[in-house]
Amino acid sequence: MNIISGIKLPGRNCIFFHLASLTKRGKCNCLYRSYAGYCRTQVTCTQDRCQRLALSGSTRNCFLIGSPDSCRDFTSKGLRCLLNSPNTESYKNAHHSSGRFWFQSSRPLGEISPLSISSVGQLPRHFSTCNIQIIRSFRTSPSFQAAPVPLFWIIVKPAQKLLAIILGRSLRNWWKALPPNKRELLKESARRNKWKILLGVSSLGVLFVVFYFTHLEETPITGRARLLVFGKEHFRELSQMEYNMWMEEFKSKMLPETDARYQVVERVVGHLSESNKDIPQVSALKWVIHVVDEPGVNAFVLPNGQVFVFTGLLNAVSDIHQLSFILGHEIAHAVLEHAAEKASLVHFLDFLSLIVLTMIWAICPRDSLAVVGQWVQSKLQEFMFDRPYSRTLEAEADKVGLQFAAKACVDVRASSVFWQQMELAETIQGQPKLPEWLSTHPSHENRAEHLDRLIPEALKIRESCNCPSLSGPDPRLIFRLNVQHLLESSKDQETPNSTKQDLSKPKLDFPHTQKVEDMPVTFAVKPTN
User: What is the DSSP string of 238-276?
Assistant: First the structure.
């Protein structure tokens, strides 16, 4: 026979006690049941012989309301019930064979005292005033989880634009079909009510401003105010879908955990997270490593802590310090919730652009002009808002990632060297150099200069964390000497018969560059007393 009973606590919906199995007369069990980590209740019974049983489990779908006045046996597994005690004492009577058992809790609300089951001939007098209300639940079909909110807006975004185009075009055709006298009447009416129209447009603008300022939040660590429309839970659901997509795409290219390159990345990420565990956003996530055998120089971290590193990046870095900074930069993106922030801004701007798009299609006399106007509007939004904002987020991730690396006792001076190497490699390979305003990322040159300005502050953070002092020459000085040596070697090897292709792709072979699997994965650690 299964017995379900409960007592209500303030601030919690209910506490559940489940599966008290009574087997034979004269024998009973003592349950120790913990629910969701909030509280623990011990139910003891004293009869001829007692046994103890410790149970732990997940939440049960039970709701407890009412007050006890009758008894009932429950034999169906998974039965849901509703019981609520209005007083600080709760009783439940369960008839078992010829004996009667009652539960009592005598401590104030907010505390859970041991509940005792005793065999008595009659129940206490005041027990008859209590009432037990049992409600059987009905079976439902499996619930379907709705799509994450960001994904929903991504799907309906084309439909919104199409609706704006149809509305604007319909207004234009309606205006063209009006007789000249009606047009003049409408223009005269608009002139007479210009203040009302202005008030309506101003009210709409005020609504947008209020929406913007009521959705501002403070960025973790940096304290910068930013617009955040979508919540963390929405993007964690979306990131799980993105994670499944990447795993499906790279399932045949994942390096095993026994690979030396995987172990290097795992240790670097583990060292960064351990050194920055005082930051709640870092310690709250479980960082899972995935190393992909791809030649691209790339790495990214999903909002749910899934770290993806391409082997092309491992071949591009010169030492473990550069790798630590790059991974710190990617972890900073996840910690600062840049994905949700960028999606929120794009969503807000897209909503505003719908009004502009409707006006373009309503005002332009021909569809061809409207298409050109729509293209100009989208490019203005992209180059005036989207890409500059992306570069701002990248610069912020550089700053926070450098702080993460400094707290991990990494040589932060190597951070700017990585971007100088990237710039040199692209120049030697003859890749076109685009203006920064056309890119979503800062240029390698500006990025290196920005990091050079941040390095003194990072060195102070490193010193405050009791990291050992840096030994050896500055990596930036070594890089400049290597570049000078490379240029001199190129001039010496240059001959009149050398082709342009030979000069455009000289081999970059810096003395301090090592393969990742050969890198000594050691960090300067804080001294222990």
Answer: HHHHHHHHHHHHSTTTBPPTTSHHHHHHHHHHHHHHHHT
Q: Which residues are catalytic?
A: 330
> How many Å apart are CA 339 and CA 154, to the nearest integer?
14
Tell me the C-alpha distance between 412 and 462, whole Å: 9
Please name the residues in contact with 228: beta carbons below 8 A apart, sequence gap of 6 or more.
215, 216, 217, 337, 340, 341, 344
Contact by Cβ (8 Å): 27, 48: yes
d(CA 268, CA 71): 61
For residue 111, what pLDDT is reported? Answer: 38
Strands (E), 47-136: 49-56, 93-96, 99-104, 115-119
- DSSP, residue by residue, 378-405: HHHHIIIIIHHHHHHHHHHHHHHHHHHH
Look at residues 432, 441, 356, 362 and name the one whose alpha carbon lies nearest to residue 396.
441
Residue range 120-164, pLDDT digits in tens: 344 344 434 444 333 333 333 334 444 455 566 667 777 888 999
Give me the pLDDT at residue 298, please: 94
pLDDT of residue 378: 92
Cα–Cα distance measured from residue 166 to residue 248, given in angstroms and rounded to the nearest whole number:
38
User: What radius of gyration, in Å, describes the C-alpha atoms of the chain?
Assistant: 34
The neighbouring-strand residues paired with 309 are 291, 299
User: Residue 468 carries which DSSP code?
Assistant: P
Give the model's pLDDT for residue 149: 56
Does this model's pTM top 0.70? My answer is no
Distance, C-alpha 123 to centroid of its chain? 55
Distance CA 403, CA 412 (A): 9
Q: Give 273-299 pLDDT, tens digit per residue.
A: 999 999 999 999 999 999 999 999 999
What type of residue sits at position 357?
Answer: L
Which among 85, 87, 33 has a CA at the least distance from the CA of 60? 33
In the prediction, which pLDDT does 159 show? Answer: 83
Q: How far is Cα 516 from Cα 316, in angstroms, rounded to an integer? A: 9
Residue with structure tokens 């929406």? 211
**Residue ranges of the chain with pLDDT lower than 70?**
1-154, 494-529
The DSSP bridge partners found for residue 56 are: 34
